[in-house]
Amino acid sequence: MLVGCSGDRSILDPAGPAAKEVAWLWWGMLTAFTLVFLGVVGLWLAAFRRRESPRRGEARERRLGLAWILGGGILLPGVTLLVLLAFGVPAGQRLLPLPLPGGEAPQVIEVIGHQWWWEVRYPEADGGEVITANRLAMPAGEPVDFHVTGADVIHAFWVPRLGGKIDMIPGRVNRIRLEADEPGVFGAQCAEFCGAQHAHMQLQVEAMERDDFEAWLAERRSPPPRAEGHDLARVAFAEHCARCHRVAGLSQGTTGPDLSDIGSRATLGAGVLAMEEGAIARWLAEHQALKPGNRMPAHDHVDAETLEALGAWLETLAP
């Protein structure tokens, strides 16, 4: 019963100011619900235990009925809604991209939902825009504005431990402000059903100190270092993959995830496979079995040796 109280996707283990307010609001609602539920059950049991009907006049019965209607049907819901608004509105305002005291502009990160992976862009990075996929880095200890949209269908951006969920709607940019109290790694999940692999659309969110965050961006401003050898893999990539996938300094494909730093990511397929030696080659050979319906075509026309060479080369693409 307590499995949801911790972990990288638990709203009951908040790691940011907005998330803490959401968690406290949830606990308050649970407490109030429990008290109301126990009260109703108590009255229900009391009614069954009574052996004789009370003798009351018609006027008194009418007054009692009116009291229950006014108290239970109007007063109790009214007070409950006012209390929820009193605490819920300030909690919701923390998630809005409102002007900060002092006029400072927060870090902006763009997140685009695809079936079924995440595109992450850093448009304000010094030296040019930085693009990655299925991994999001953010500075800790300061507010960050996320500009989110969908590329195909409606998705939803949700980092439970940081609070808030917002829809990602094609053709529209929605904004939400989140903050992590301290460095850490958090799980994120698409929270709007978006197709057969909705559950396998996960995102790793890493909060880090500002200096570490700037260094992380700087590592990705330049093309990945060229590993010796792998000539067969580069030729195969240019022939089979470059039109869909971007590798900085080599190709500009935009249909599939950016692969410029794929070797540094923790998982493949937006959380389907752990990144380890040989994992990319396996993904290339079995991706339709591992994540049925994803938009990358099967590679039946490519021999196993070439796929293994491609996988080994892609594993070297890390800053």
Automatic annotation (TrEMBL):
Keyword Transport: yes
Matching InterPro entries: CcO_II, CcO_II-like_C, Copper_CuA, Cupredoxin, CuRO_CcO_Caa3_II, Cyt_c-like_dom, Cyt_c-like_dom_sf, Cyt_c_oxidase_su2
UniProt function note: Subunits I and II form the functional core of the enzyme complex. Electrons originating in cytochrome c are transferred via heme a and Cu(A) to the binuclear center formed by heme a3 and Cu(B).
Membrane topology category: Multi-pass membrane protein
NCBIfam families xrefs: CoxB
Alphabetical list of Pfam families matching this protein: COX2, Cytochrom_C
Family in the record: Belongs to the cytochrome c oxidase subunit 2 family.
Swiss-Prot/TrEMBL catalytic activity: 4 Fe(II)-[cytochrome c] + O2 + 8 H(+)(in) = 4 Fe(III)-[cytochrome c] + 2 H2O + 4 H(+)(out)
Keyword field: Copper, Electron transport, Heme, Iron, Membrane, Metal-binding, Respiratory chain, Translocase, Transmembrane, Transmembrane helix, Transport
Listed name of the protein: cytochrome-c oxidase
Transmembrane intervals: 24-46, 66-89
Domain Cytochrome oxidase subunit II copper A binding: residue ranges: 104-219
EC number: 7.1.1.9
Protein location: Membrane
Residue span(s) of domain Cytochrome c: 224-318
Source lineage: Bacteria, Pseudomonadati, Pseudomonadota, Gammaproteobacteria, Oceanospirillales
Top-rank taxon: Bacteria
